Amino acid sequence: MSQIRYIIGIDEVGRGPLAGPVTVCAFAILETDLKLLDEIHAKDSKVLSEQKRDAVAAKLAQLKKSGRCVYQVASTSASIIDEKGLTKSIWMAINTALKKLNIHPEHADIYLDGGLHAPKSYFRQHTIIKGDSKIPVISCASCIAKVHRDGLMNKYDLEFPGYGFLDHKGYGTPAHYKMIKKLGLCDIHRRLFLRKLGQKSLVK
Questions:
Q1: What domains sit in the chain, N to C, each tagged with a CATH number?
Q2: Which of 61, 131, 142, 166 is the most buried (most CB within 10 A)?
Q3: HSE-CB for 90 with a 13 A CA cutoff
Q4: pLDDT bracket for residue 119 (50, 70, 90)
């Protein structure tokens, strides 16, 4: 069997919002090409401005186009989060992203941020606390996932006008709570989260 070894980074975004999906990116690059990431300057997406995240994502898209890396993104909807819970929903997105990546576990070393875990068939996997700020492949996954989810929320802003998704991306800002009270919940709100936060009066 070929010993071609991919280094895969996995991160999720959208764990905490009141609305919208949770999104995972699985980013893969050959071990021999890791130095290419030095020129990308990816960091934890939470510490980068939107402009810098977009710039990183654009560089990675060019790297993908040239065949020097591959990545896949998967999202789990608010309705599934309500049904399955957040932990299971994130695992489902990880599993989907890895299936779409289509790299055999024998050829993969996986690095995951925080408390994330890949399916057990990926026997070389490493969970790294604050990995999105320490491991370049995780930083790349973080930026791609964030840019992708923000794009989805921008589209939802048009589909569900008035809530301000363009600005807060579904997070629980005072302005978001204000509009929920005014307009009620829409199809992409996580009713489970609002119940847990003691906002039962908002959940019909």
A1: 6-159 (3.30.420.10)
A2: 142
A3: 17
A4: very high
CA–CA gap between residue 162 and residue 145 (Å, rounded): 25
Alpha-helix runs per DSSP H in the chain:
50-65, 78-84, 86-101, 136-159, 165-168, 174-183, 191-196
Rg of the chain, C-alpha, whole Å: 18
What DSSP assignment string belongs to 133-175? GT-HHHHHHHHHHHHHHHHHHHHHHHHSTTS-HHHHTT---HH
Cα 28 to Cα 6, 135, 184, distances in angstroms: 6, 13, 41
- Beta-bridge mates of residue 113: 128
Give the helix/strand (H/E) hosting 125.
strand 125-128
| CB distance 154 to 23 below 8 Å | no
Classify 46 as helix, strand or coil.
Answer: helix
Answer whether 94's CB lies under 8 Å from 24's CB: yes
Interval 47-95: pLDDT, tens: 999 999 999 999 999 999 999 999 999 999 999 999 999 999 999 999 9
Tell me what pLDDT residue 199 has: 65
Looking at the predicted structure, is the pLDDT value of residue 1 above 60?
no
